[in-house]
Amino acid sequence: MADPELEAIRQRRMQEMMAQHGGGSQQNPEQQKAQEEAKSEADERRQMMLSQILSSQARERLARIALVKPEKARGVEDVILRAAQMGQIAEKVSEERLISLLEQINTQTTKQTKVTIQRRRSVLDDDD
């Protein structure tokens, strides 16, 4: 394989990897700016809906959770928004109700950790 062929393959592979990880330069700056604006607009609507659904204490607790575990807070927000869209939430969610929801989610998503210890025997150990 000649060097120009190898270089062409490397360039194609690099472009594929960049496209997969979202760092691709295939999009022009206007498209990137439009995507960022759409994302910020969606986040803004999401926060507005949450402020209408959650009480101030519940919003504060959820914000503290988001500082420690953002993915967990995002999941809780998704559950709350989905319930509100389906009409299951009639009044503002209080802090107590948020806590009970968090406890339910914790019991459903607890991961069982298993630790196995494998002892290695040394060549010099005698088992007489």
Automatic annotation (TrEMBL):
<dbReference type="GO" id="GO:0003677">
    <property type="term" value="F:DNA binding"/>
</dbReference>
<dbReference type="GO" id="GO:0005634">
    <property type="term" value="C:nucleus"/>
</dbReference>
<dbReference type="InterPro" id="IPR002836">
    <property type="entry name" value="PDCD5-like"/>
</dbReference>
<feature type="region of interest" description="Disordered">
    <location>
        <begin position="14"/>
        <end position="45"/>
    </location>
</feature>
<dbReference type="InterPro" id="IPR036883">
    <property type="entry name" value="PDCD5-like_sf"/>
</dbReference>
<feature type="compositionally biased region" description="Basic and acidic residues">
    <location>
        <begin position="33"/>
        <end position="45"/>
    </location>
</feature>
<comment type="similarity">
    <text>Belongs to the PDCD5 family.</text>
</comment>
<dbReference type="Pfam" id="PF01984">
    <property type="entry name" value="dsDNA_bind"/>
</dbReference>
<protein>
    <recommendedName>
        <fullName>Double-stranded DNA-binding family protein</fullName>
    </recommendedName>
</protein>
<dbReference type="GO" id="GO:0005829">
    <property type="term" value="C:cytosol"/>
</dbReference>
